Amino acid sequence: MAATEKGVWDLQEVRDKQLAGEWSYTGATNLYVWGQNYSGQLANNTTFAGRSSPIQVGTGADWDKDKIRFGRYFWTGIKTDGTAWVAGTNENGILGQNKTPGFGAGQQYAISSPVQLPGTWSRLPGGYEATTGVKTDGTLWSWGLNENGVLGLNQAHDGRISSPTQIGSGTDWSNSDVYIDLCLAVKTDGTLWSWGNNFYGGGGRNDRTARSSPTQVGTDTTWDADNIAGSAYGASALKTDGTLWAWGYSPTGNLGLNQGNTVPYSSPVQVGTDTTWSKIDTGTNIAIGLKTNGTLWMWGSNSYGALGQNNTTYYSSPVQIPGTTWNDCAAAHKAGAGRKTDGTLWTWGNDDEGMGGRNNKNPTGGRVSSPTQVPGTDWSSIFGSATGLNMMATKTV
Questions:
Q1: What is the distance of C-alpha 148 from the center of its chain?
Q2: Is the pLDDT score of 210 beyond 50?
Q3: Taking the domains of the chain in order of start, what are their residue ranges?
Q4: pLDDT of residue 6
Q5: Each residue of 50-61: pLDDT tens digit?
Q6: Helix H or strand E encompassing 12
Q7: 32-396 has which CATH code?
């Protein structure tokens, strides 16, 4: 185990590390990406040539392993110094560079190498055609396409903003997540807020009316800021007591409420009764969740074997993926991924454009419906693109 790696230590390791003064941990890691590259989202200064094995982004080992996200054809990342970086398509000004999409003067179609956003950031989730982020001063910002008011700026729909614009004047935001045209956010007091598309009740406010400004979801103050996840039809989130909640529409069982195509839920509904959930993530009509005992669970659409069950059967309730040593997970476009406590990385499901990272580009039998290892034993985190054909991960320094 690397000296700076966060993990579980036995008694002798504790003593050795204390004596050696090696308990510091900054979260700094090397960044790797793979899959599709049509818009330069692999950030290796090329376009179109995708990769079916992980390739490193630059040479710096200063990426915060917990603050990397993949959107649709682009990604966002925060370094340990709080600087934020983006690469990939600039559709609808999604890269926040104050340039409109295109090839002419003052335009920018795509960026195939990381470019910095102004300011210092604490959270910067990827999006679809819009994104949001929280700066270190607790202010909330958005940019991109304002479909259904998802930018939260109380403006008419469908406008485009190509540089970060502040949402309101509050300085108490903790985290946000945007999926297509629905946005969720949590404040430092543990309250949950939503805005944007609400056709299926994904706003969680007991109605189906879209909002163009942040509106509080219920009155609870126990939402886990690290675990809010929007989806195409709704949302999933954890509370600080380890319970899992979901709302919206469940055409493929993606809410985990033991039912498929039903009337949408417009308010949060608890998934089961467990109080041991530690992480939640959503992909294309699927969800993945991690429990405190190291077990990994998935539910929803099982196209391409996305649920890791060695079959293609849909599940509308959480079903366990084999093993009890998982400590990280990610959902992607018809695919899943997980990291084990030994630092190994595993993927399954869709392998189009090599997004599985297993050194193939979906030849016959390229898609696998059970966890399959990606080479290496020093992986520290994993992220997937919920709407694109990419994954990215970090390695310990």
A1: 21
A2: yes
A3: 32-396
A4: 42
A5: 999 999 999 999
A6: helix 11-20
A7: 2.130.10.30
